[in-house]
Amino acid sequence: MKKIFLSILIFVQLICNAEKKFVWLYELEGTEASYKWDNYPEIHKKNNTVIIGYPTDRSINQIANFLYESHLKNMDENDKIILIAQGMGGLVARSLKNLSNSVIGIITLGTPHNGLELLSGAFKGEIINLFSYLTEISFQNIEITTHIFDNHTNSISSFAKPIIHSVNNFNTNFLINSLSDLTIYFDKAMRLYGSNYVGIYDLIPNSSYLRNINERTLDIPLINIYGSEDGWPVLRALSSLHKIKKTKCPAFKEKKSDKMFFHYFYLAMSNIREIQQAHITTYNTLTILAGFNPQLWVTREKIIISQNNWDRIYRYIGVDIHCDFAINTGAIQFKYLNYNIHKSTLKTDQMHSMRYLPFILKNDGFSSIPDMEFKGNSTSSVINIQVEGVNQMEIQSHQAIRLIMHRIFNEKIFGEVFSN
Amino acid sequence: MKKSFLQLTVIKSTLILIMQSCNNYGSEINIINAQEGIAIEATYHFIYSEQSEFLKINEHKDFLSTDIINIIRNDPFLNARSKAQCEQSDTVFTLSEIPIKTEQRYQSRIFHNGHSETIFEDLTGEGSNPIYYLIENAVDESTQIRKTIIKEGVLTAFNSSGNEVIRSAFEEPDMREFLDTLFIYLDKLQREGNGSTLNKMNQFRFSLNKLYELVTFSKLPNANISMELIENKDFTGNSSTSSMYKWHNTRSITELDPEMTKTLRYELYAGNQLIGRSIYSYSPDDNFRGTYNGKIVSEHPEIIKTQIISFNPEGKPMLRTTTITYLKNQIIYHSNQTN
């Protein structure tokens, strides 16, 4: 009896003396990540935190095995470990949980627990196709527009000047200075990630890794923090990509990166308005000349076709590309809604009906189901937190996230397990 | 008393002028000395509506060439859509199928010194287009452009609250050569007037035969003139992303009024494939005129309806229909002497 009592006493003491350790993991880029976890200095001041890097030339399970063998295994058996990770690191954390009984809680930021729909499209070239499509139809329109006045004398060709001038502005300001760069950057980034980061293939939806990890029961609490898009998804995604190093840089933390590309898009749209005005003016003024130069009757009609093409680009930049992008990131849901539109171009003047309509969701493509469903038991609890106005690119450095983390660690809003 | 009152009035007027000139929101083009040296004043105010739809066998026969029909038949999705009745189809697959309707106004001035100014306003009422609400987080209105001013090499855009959203350098063209040519013809028109239809047709035949492979004129039953031209050039239409889809051997049919002063209808073909069609309507109202020295020199369309075949990013052919209904489509030309 005495022996049993003594054993229990020693065991309880050991548990009480067991230290809680906060282990921070990087995202896909592992140790080479362009940011470090130094946005949380007040947390790292305490001696119970450790940041662990890892090589990226292996799968998620292999990374987890590496981390367990090199770090977790050597920690005190009685230590209680909280894993904090961003992006792919969150899945590394879940795999680590299956190797170590010391893990008592996980916090994931922007982790694609269901896989990354964006990757499926990106590796098939579907995302790049959107930008290529926009670039291609823009260049085609430029070609059509600038050749409208071929076969005319120089004096007649001077009528092309306002149109061609506006079109050249669009070419320089938008196509050359921003869209082409981004298209090339996106393509390079996908190739780089595909070749250098083996774990990225585990993130493709329905990969064997994801099927396996999501079949397992989760028996500890997990806080799943993920982002959202506000406004048009392409603009925010491109904004973040455009200044990706800055977005992830701790020094940038007070600024919002997601609206930077708005400038280019809206400038392009304003430019197109000028192009359209130039088309109308040239079309109308050519009426004067057409009475003396009959070939201008046909030339005028090409102006209408050209104008129509520019209208189409305007609409694609303003609306359609965002829907196409959202389809590729899994951020589309078809909803049965009242389809009340003014169909003045068609037979009926007004149309009231219910239709399934594409509805762009606010998720940022890194969590294709807003609330991740985990298999759990009585000791597990999953807390899903979607943070408005923060997308995946900025989820590590954004002020809103740092506030949430501060509250988790210091104000125990989600219980003792995560408190520091 | 009188002197101080006068001084006060002068100071007040000066202040008002300074304040107004500092207000970039939309009034500059009326305040500064824009009355002097104006060559062209143009006002375009219109309702614009657009929609893209998948080609339907019953509705779009004119656009269904053998090539297009083969594309449709080999694609199960397109095949199903081609047979669906508009009212029966219960799913809109992409936002591009949803119509958008906008109200736009352009005011433009071109000066004899070659400079120009443009104000563009988006007058579309809020909530007019449900497409902008098919997004869980609605687009922030403060980021939407409602007014754009291009003036003195600067483009400035404003949101609905009148706050500046964009400011950027925007090089303007030198319009002097354009104006020189235009006013030569305006003066010629005033001196010589419009010739007879027969003379014009002969002129047309003579000039066009040099440029086109075939030129055919015919008089239609409604007395309108049909002008058919075959071009040797390729017309690069909007293509799929996988290949350039060039329309070869384009042919156009233009229908003109009996006096050959207005285009009523225009169709562009590639072989037997109708690529695009525009239909024009006119109004006798002064809002749709070009005038020079108080005399009418041109008539501008009131309504233009255009249909063009295009390809979406997946390479599927769609028909895009746009209708521009002008409320004002007016140009006033000013000769240099009157300024």
If you had to describe this structure to a student in words, what would you say it looks like?
The complex is a heterodimer of chains A (420) and B (339). Chain A contains 14 helices and eight strands. In chain A, helix 6 (126-146) packs antiparallel against helix 8 (161-196), helix 6 packs antiparallel against helix 13 (295-328) and helix 8 runs antiparallel to helix 12. The relative contact order of chain A is 0.14. Chain A has helices at residues 2-17, 41-44, 60-70, 88-97, 117-123, 126-146, 154-157, 161-196, 208-215, 233-242, 244-247, 262-290, 295-328, 399-410, and strands at residues 20-25, 49-52, 80-86, 103-109, 222-227, 332-338, 354-360, 382-387. Chain A is elongated and about 115 Å long. Chain B contains six helices and 17 strands. Chain B has helices spanning 2-22, 28-31, 66-73, 76-83, 176-192, 197-211; strands spanning 38-54, 100-111, 116-122, 147-151, 154-158, 164-169, 214-219, 225-230, 235-236, 246-247, 250-256, 263-270, 273-281, 289-292, 295-299, 303-311, 317-333. Chain B starts with a helix and ends in a 6-residue tail after the last strand. Mean pLDDT of chain B is 80; it is low at 12-34 and 238-245. At the A-B interface, helix 6, helix 8, helix 12, helix 13 and strand 7 of A face strand 1, strand 2, strand 3, strand 6 and helix 5 of B.
Compile the SSE list and pairings:
The complex is a heterodimer of chains A (420) and B (339).
Chain A: H1 2-17, E1 20-25, H2 41-44, E2 49-52, H3 60-70, E3 80-86, H4 88-97, E4 103-109, H5 117-123, H6 126-146, H7 154-157, H8 161-196, H9 208-215, E5 222-227, H10 233-242, H11 244-247, H12 262-290, H13 295-328, E6 332-338, E7 354-360, E8 382-387, H14 399-410
Parallel strand pairs in A: 1-2, 1-3, 3-4, 4-5, 5-8
Antiparallel strand pairs in A: 6-7
Helix pairs in contact in A: 3-4, 6-8, 6-13, 8-12, 12-13
Chain B: H1 2-22, H2 28-31, E1 38-54, H3 66-73, H4 76-83, E2 100-111, E3 116-122, E4 147-151, E5 154-158, E6 164-169, H5 176-192, H6 197-211, E7 214-219, E8 225-230, E9 235-236, E10 246-247, E11 250-256, E12 263-270, E13 273-281, E14 289-292, E15 295-299, E16 303-311, E17 317-333
Parallel strand pairs in B: 14-17
Antiparallel strand pairs in B: 1-2, 1-17, 2-3, 3-4, 4-5, 5-6, 7-8, 8-11, 9-10, 11-12, 12-13, 13-16, 14-15, 16-17
